[in-house]
Amino acid sequence: MRATEDIMQVWRKFNDFPMETLTKAWHSLIDPECKQRTTDVMKEHRALYGTSGNCFDLAIWLIDEFRQNKRPCYGVLTEHLHVAVVAVNEEGNKYFCDLGDQWIEPILLEPGHEAYTEEFVDGFFPGSRIKLNTRANRLLITYGRPNGKESSQAFDLTPVSDEALIIAGQKTQRLFSDPLVEKRIFTDQEVLHWEFDHYESYLSSKEGRIAEPQLKDIGEWAERIHTMSGIHEEVVIRALEVYSKKSSHP
Fold this sequence. Notes:
five-stranded antiparallel β-sheet
């Protein structure tokens, strides 16, 4: 089920990228129209401020990298405006690639392949086992947590055009609910998953999810988020201030 090296060499370029909704809030102060950023702009922001972006930013950037490496690829969507990428290796096999949900690595998406299984497998998602179910143009992913709970997510596998991807991405750039940061933490033993959501933060592993100590203000949160994600503290502060004006959080 694991991806071949031609897929992995592109995927690994993003190992240190968080998924985060802070950059769009910060960028709204620069671009009031909240347009979907181009890959060149995203690269510039990352070099200067350590930012990455939301699931659409990451998918658009990943697609650009795959195509630079002559690998065919396209976006696929859920009905809840989450996006992932399907990339095709040199042998013509498809792989599901989801940076937005911070998967550890891509997974085979070929039901007829001898290596394909619809049983639970380890090593693809931090702190969880996953299994796939593909029927026609629909992919159902089930996540099995260490506590026995399961959750699922469904994708329409119909390829999304580049134009439609930009339009959908631009919608998400204008949505400000709650700030979210997710980051894979690579250790010698396993890949952990760190998350900041609703002004709480957690570290998930195969043993379960552990809540971190609460903090009292935006400055303290900015320091923790910077430490875990690499995003510059000033960018985090400005972004959290944008969100705080739209909610009752600190």
